[in-house]
Amino acid sequence: MKEKTIDITAQGEALVDMISTERGVTVENASGFVKAFGGALANVAVGCARLGARTAFIGKVGSDPFGEYLCAYLRDAGAVTDGLVFSDTHNTSLVFVSLDEASKPSFYFYGKPSADLKLEAEEVNVEILKSSRFFHFGTVSLSAEPSRSATQFAVRTARRAGAVISYDPNIRFHMWDDPDEAIKWALRMMPEADIVKINDDEAEWLVGTRDPEAATSKLMELGPRLAVVTLGAEGAFFAVPDQRGRVPAFKANVVDTTGAGDAFVTGLLTGLASSGAVDPLSDVEIIKKSLVRAAVAAALTTEAMGAVSAMPEAETLEKAIKSKLDTEREK
User: Hey, which residues does 246 pair with through a beta bridge?
Assistant: First the structure.
């Protein structure tokens, strides 16, 4: 088996977020927008690199200024970009983001079909997959062909090469022609994953309940070794084959919740990857510590505007973990 020189590879959408400069307005009523790096899978690649992991990204962008911007951002963060493909026929996706008064984002995807949905299986960098310890994916790339087939190919190739498969469905119904298809494909990929992370809305859509204990139990029946339901200000609930548990949320001065779920994934995956264990999913204590790390990373990310721009560096996260855990112990 090929030497594992990459800790975490993410495959999927890299796009440009156009974030409203005003709060509490819809996209159509916003008077201005600020450009920012975006895309859940690209966010995870950058966030993991910031936390010290050897990271790679696989995806497709347009041969346009926005695609060049995304490539440079990934490279500057330390992510391997050998798996990033440029399209001469489709543009980089733009996503317009507006925030309500509670800092919750809504999204409008502009320019479908965009380059990220045009990645073909033949364009997937197999050498990166064979070199990866963890492989992470979502459902936006499953919403259309050929990226759907490319994603399935990558997941199965990475699994055969011995990677731990991480899956955050991150369902965006407006990316699908039929919402039922979104649910069908999100569920179809569950048995392929070792780790599944969803939020409480997705729990209701996918397994018919918002109750985190019931939801994680139902997810475990679909095949993963670790299932997590994030609950916003109420923390997260997790399940492994022989144990269930809750991880608290950590207090944050919330400015923007965009990217909090992606930051949670970066904390979780880098915690597992850096544990030193041959099989970190077999050790519940490693999982618990990684979930605390995930919760703190998510909290930090909500304290600044943007998704990836607010994700912490390793030193910042470690200090915050110690500080927040000390605060919890004092209560």
Answer: 237
CB 249 within 8 A of CB 233: yes
Strand ranges (E), 138-233 = 164-167, 195-199, 226-230
Of 256, 255, 294, whose CA–CA distance to 273 is shortest?
294
pLDDT range class, residue 72, cuts 50, 70, 90: very high
pLDDT in tens, 121-136: 999 999 999 999 999 9
Q: What is the rounded average pLDDT for all residues in the chain?
A: 94
Domain boundaries, the chain: 6-330
Q: Which tokens hold the place of 308?
A: 């990836």
Architecture of domain 6-330: 3-Layer(aba) Sandwich (3.40)
To the question of pTM greater than 0.85 for the whole model, the response is yes
- 164-188: per-residue pLDDT in tens? 999 999 999 989 999 999 999 999 9
Question: Residues for the chain: how many in total?
Answer: 331
- In which element (H, E) is residue 9 found? strand 6-11
231, 212 contact by CB (below 8 A) = yes
Contact 95, 247 (CB under 8 A): no
**Residue whose C-alpha is closest to residue 140's, from 176, 89, 107, 88:** 176
